[in-house]
Design a protein that fits this description.
The complex is a heterodimer of chains A (619) and B (270). With 619 residues, chain A is of the alpha+beta class. Chain A is built from 19 helices and 26 strands. Chain B is an alpha/beta fold. Chain B is globular. Classes of the chains: A alpha+beta (619), B alpha/beta (270).
């Protein structure tokens, strides 16, 4: 084959092209595939792109397997159960029915946590009254869990195992195709219509220049493009950039979630289905969870939210301190790491909702603003967005209507507006605004919003990262001098290290007592738990758009917050990116403290389509 | 006269080697803990054979590639989601146990039977490809037995290269001791080639190839007959993975030379 032919970009026509295979796409494809065939197995709809064949539906997933998603899930599972009324959790590995729930406030056993004077006073009161209160192991077990937080009757899931289970059913149906390991690079937009997607170029150097084996990403043209590529998916974000968000909407709130799946000691007596939710430690802003699966396996993790206004949002290090809290360590001590992973969550909820449909496209899942920030639930909501879209699409297929904005608004958006999903997202809309003014105010705001069904809320105004992330000097004022921070910064830079370990230990956080089994170094977590790797022949997907902004950046929070230590100090102040360590969580994208010139709602990091990442199926 | 080769690749699946593989005993014999939870991949040795087969078929008009694979149907389906994007082939699926705890003789008999059942197969054009080794079974015997059952006498193992001469004969490089190759000449099909690593990189994903393959993959999976393979009558006295030692230690400011000395001492056990 000559070079000129090899460089030719190919085009393929299908009827529906889908981007990203997560719970939302699982819901969409499951519902859609059931409506594409008659009871006798004959196709109900003929393909327009390939006349004579059934409807051609193809889904591209960036990760190398449909099981490589990340989330320990506790969910009421209303949407999932509506799709699978006879669902038996024992069919799905690492699934269990919710048996008991606890909400636990963790005191600070090491004295290094940054607590407000009010919170320290509250801690002292709890300790003083420990015999009268339900306290144990430096923790207060709350006697009541608000109804809006409870998941009774719900399910515990491993997202990876759930999507693997759903994916297998879908492929077996033969009605749709799912192709993992195939990132989608860009949407194809003509005039104001999305006409398909372009797949990633293969056989390039890290800058995207063709190398041996170069194969330009194929153009996949389709009458309908369904976008469910999550909160940091390149297609959803490019659509947001192209079409903008609805007036007054923004996506300024997020969280980094990092987790482990752990083999518990044999003598740990925790009933499968047990759910623990924690708050208060290692920093007051950080929430934690422990979900107990069958066979002595547990999923544990923390969420580091955007309102934790620290320049060292070191989620892995904080996860280890959280695990070492006496209330949790009594269960986790002697355990063994099975899996590790990290992701970010778009937590603006309905306020971050993009245009849900337009000519030739529709948005579903977390990237469509479906996460409920009051109930702390996203998977079932994402699933439901997919089922609602599929019902609408099937209706349009039956009517023979094209996938125009007008028809999709009627068939999908109106259906979504009339669903429980919409009603609950409106209740949750302002529920977390109070966290912009402090943790206690935020907790109060959640309670008020939850108990009044969203009629009342504590006000707060989320700000973008550049207005929120302080410098290390400002954050540690009164604890570490500017001179010492400068010295630590120089030392770390000379050794290619991030700052957070040195700064945290300087502030009293004890060193992690590595045991080689559960408490392991960050890199060991990547290798042993995440099995992280990336194939050669693809461009870097994390790009620092304006290098001069990085060189003069005072925080370089991208290095501190990187979940995989894939971003490290580089030459001339420009961070270095190692594609083979990236877990595609997107923490850098959200956290970057440098606004993009001309667009203050975006940061100086562009998170493009990329391959590789986590290879664990248990997260 | 019909030209081109009929290349049948025997390729099994194995648990993704990146996963934590923990052998355990159950009443039916040894197995890998949580094996059905773990993602699977096409055996890397067989994958090389498949890429070589596709390359040869592409270069020889009129050729066709079949992939004969034995494994749990659900896992085969999962693996095909990735493999089917790589190169054109037609799947012949057998629904049975995969892994290192099956009897090679039984596996070879089933594979040979499946090959013989391929409609329109022409021995004068037949090339049987496979992995010389397997990520789950290192005996290197399966493909040889498949060839014997098919009465294919020209067999080559550890193949790194196959070149076609102008007269249609093959020049084949097989790995031998000392990092060298044995060069053999073969008149042509039928032949069995157990590939080592070959010389081809993993092909890029191609959606058109995937779409075309899937039109035969899913029906093949639906047709897949249960294939009983096991190790009936065999008692496994002990099963273990090669011992792995991992010592994590955080040391600051250690000179490079000292790190190197420690690594050497660690390896040598000094």
């Amino acid at each position: 084959m000559s070079d000129s032919i090899a460089l030719e970009r190919q085009t393929m026509e299908v009827d529906i092209v889908c981007v990203g295979f997560g719970p939302a796409m699982g819901g969409f494809l499951t519902t859609l595939s059931r409506g594409l065939v008659r009871e006798d197995g004959a196709p109900l709809h003929e393909s327009r792109s390939a006349p004579g064949l059934p409807l051609q539906v193809i889904c591209y997933e960036r990760a190398d397997d449909v099981a490589f998603g990340v989330s320990g899930v506790v969910t009421r599972a209303r949407g999932i159960r509506a799709t699978f009324p006879d669902l038996d959790p024992s069919e799905i590995p690492l699934a269990a029915s919710v048996a008991r729930e606890k909400l636990v406030y963790l005191l600070d056993p090491v004295g290094a946590s940054r607590r407000s004077a009010t919170l320290m006073l509250a801690d002292r009161l709890i300790r003083a009254c420990r015999r009268a209160l339900p306290t144990e192991d430096e923790a207060l077990v709350l006697p009541h869990i608000p109804s809006f937080l409870r998941k009774e009757g719900g399910l515990l899931l491993s997202l990876g195992q759930f999507t693997q289970w759903v994916g297998a059913k879908l492929m077996a149906s033969g009605a749709v195709q799912i192709w993992p390991g195939t990132p989608v690079a860009t949407p194809l937009i003509e005039e104001k219509r999305v006409v398909g997607v372009r797949l990633i170029d293969q056989g390039t150097d890290r800058h995207g220049n063709p190398e041996a084996g170069f194969m330009p990403g194929m153009d996949i043209r389709a009458a309908l493009t369904v976008v469910g590529d999550g909160p940091v998916g390149p297609i959803g974000r490019q659509l947001d950039e192209h079409f903008g968000l609805p007036e007054g909407y923004h996506q300024r709130e997020w969280a980094v979630g990092t987790k482990m799946v752990v083999d518990l000691r044999e003598d740990v007596e925790l009933e499968p289905g047990t759910v623990l939710h924690t708050f208060g430690y290692p920093e007051p802003e950080i929430f934690g969870f422990m979900y107990v699966y069958p066979d002595q396996v547990a999923s544990v993790g923390i969420f580091v939210p955007s309102w934790f206004e620290s320049p060292i949002r070191a989620s892995y290090r904080y996860l280890q301190h959280w695990m070492l809290h006496p209330y949790l360590w009594r269960y986790l001590q002697g355990g063994r790491l099975r899996s590790w992973g990290a992701k970010t969550l778009q937590e603006s909820g309905r306020r971050g909702e993009p245009h849900l449909a337009g000519d030739g496209y529709a948005r579903i899942g977390e990237g469509s603003g479906s996460t409920n920030v009051l109930t702390g639930s996203g998977v079932d909501e994402a699933w439901t967005t997919g089922t609602l879209l599929a019902e609408g699409v099937l209706g349009l297929l039956r009517e023979g209507q094209p996938f125009t904005k007008e028809h999709l608004e009627r068939a999908y958006v109106e259906r979504r507006r009339g669903s429980w999903l919409e009603a609950e997202s409106r209740v949750a809309g302002r529920a977390r605004d109070g966290f912009q003014r402090g943790v206690l105010t935020g907790l109060l705001g959640m309670a008020v919003a939850g108990l009044t069904r969203g009629k009342l809320a504590v006000p707060g105004d989320p700000t973008p990262p550049h207005a929120r992330v302080p410098s290390a000097e400002a954050y540690y004022r009164g604890k570490i001098s500017g001179e010492e921070i400068a010295r630590i910064r120089d030392e770390c830079a000379s050794r290619g290290l991030s700052l957070h370990d040195a700064l945290m230990e300087r502030c009293g956080w004890p060193a992690i007592p590595y045991d080689g089994k559960l408490l392991v170094s960050h890199q060991d977590a990547l290798l042993l738990g995440g099995k992280v790797q990336a194939p050669p022949g693809y461009a870097d997907h994390v790009v620092f758009l304006y290098p001069h902004l990085c060189e003069t950046c005072g925080t370089r929070i991208c290095i501190e917050t990187c979940s995989g230590q894939a971003i490290t100090p580089g030459e001339s102040g420009l961070p270095a990116f190692d594609r083979e360590k990236c877990v595609h969580c997107g923490a850098c994208l959200w956290s970057c403290s440098q606004p993009r010139p001309g667009d203050l709602e975006r940061t100086n990091i562009e998170f493009r389509a990329g391959t590789g990442g986590l290879h664990s199926a248990e997260n | 006269m019909t030209t081109g080769y009929q290349i049948v690749v025997c390729g099994g699946i194995v648990p993704d080697p990146l996963q934590t593989l923990d052998p355990v005993a159950n009443p039916a014999g040894p197995t890998i803990k949580n094996e059905m939870m773990l993602p699977a991949v096409l055996d890397p040795w067989a994958a090389h054979a498949l890429y070589e087969a596709a390359h040869l078929a592409k270069a020889t008009p009129g050729s066709k590639v079949w992939l004969v694979s034995l494994g749990p149907k659900a896992k085969l389906q999962q693996v095909m989601m990735t493999v089917a994007q790589k190169v054109p082939f037609e799947l012949v699926a057998l629904d049975g146990q995969a892994g290192g705890f099956t009897d090679t003789y039984e596996v070879a008999a089933l594979l040979a039977g499946a090959i013989q059942a391929i409609p329109g197969l022409d021995r004068s054009r037949l090339l049987v490809f496979g992995g010389w080794e397997s990520a789950s079974r290192g005996a290197g015997a399966t493909l040889q037995m498949v060839g014997e059952r098919l009465h294919v006498l020209d067999q080559f193992q550890g193949v790194d290269r196959l070149a076609i001469a102008a007269d249609g004969s093959f020049q084949i490089l097989e790995r031998i001791e000392g990092g060298r190759h044995q060069v053999s000449t073969c008149a042509g099909p039928p032949a069995v080639l157990g590939w080592a690593t070959g010389s081809l990189p993993e092909p890029p994903n191609n959606s058109q190839v995937g779409m075309a393959n899937m039109r035969t993959v899913m029906p093949a999976l639906h047709r897949a007959k249960p294939a009983k393979v096991g190790a009936e009558g065999v008692t496994f006295a002990r099963v273990s993975l090669p011992s792995q030692r991992r010592d994590t230690r955080i040391v600051k400011d250690l000179p490079v030379g000292e790190i190197a000395r420690e690594i050497v001492a660690w390896i040598t056990g000094a």
